[in-house]
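Q: My labmate handed me this sequence with no annotations at all. I'd like to see what the chain might look like in three dimensions before we decide whether it's worth expressing. Could you predict it?
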Amino acid sequence: MKFRGLIIGFIIVGILTNIGFVFGEDIKYGILWKRSAGDSISSVAITSDGNYIVAGSHTNAYLFDKNGNLIWVYNTGNKVNSVAITPDGNYIVVGGDSDNVYLLNKNKDLLCRYSTEDRVNSVAITSDGNYIVAGDYGNIYLFNKKGEFLWKYETEDSVNSVAITPDGNYIVVGCDNDNVYLFNKGYEVRSGETTTVSATLTEETGSLFVESDPSGAEIYIDGDYKGKTPKTISELSPGTHTLKLRMDGYSDYTKDVEIKTGETTNVYVKLESVPITDTNDNVKNNGNNINTLMILLFLGLIAVGGGIYFITKKKKQNK
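A: Here is what I predict for the chain of 319 residues:
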């Protein structure tokens, strides 16, 4: 019996040891890839299958695939504070200091842009992309992907984080006022309450980055002075604009540039110096002119002197 108990004890210890090995296994990890965006990253999100990753930085939103390949960059012109993506990767929402919420598809097409009253701190989107919730410094907004503004709730304090259920039926919000709010999608104004609903239509714009060699050239867009190179000129209306660069000692440069919504057009110009006239040639020419003038003056004096001599001599002969 003792021997049998000993065997059973060894078996139990072996089983427990194996279980310990299983549960205590050292799980090895590896970095699949690392990509630099050239600026600090403020927000990231990933699809449920890991196929798409969206990231937000100082002025841009980036879309990568799971292999680390950069699919596109979208410039908002201001700091990006929050990004979100649907599980299938078909819709991306971006919010930041531009006081706007951007809805894009994975092909980088801008589907809608919603205007808010202040910089956006947090955004979220439903699984099908039908509803977008955003929070800024004092308000919560609900939009749909058709570009329609549904409602706004004033929190009177900064909204730090928002979330929405996959079907969009519930929205949760956290604020600086120490409160957590839970809304339903059909939030309505109740009897005796007043809620302000507002929406501002804003013109879609793009940006132009101008760099020159040498730097310091004056920049003119459609005749208006915009500063000196290198510089990014923001909030330009989409379409064709006339760019002109001016700098002392160099020929003026003029070019028509195409501005696209939500994108930054880059222009690099190598200015051509203006030919300078050889000062030695000028001195030589001036010297030659002076010599000619002196000769003519000398000849003139000889002629005058000779004339006076002959006139004087003739008068003496007449006497």
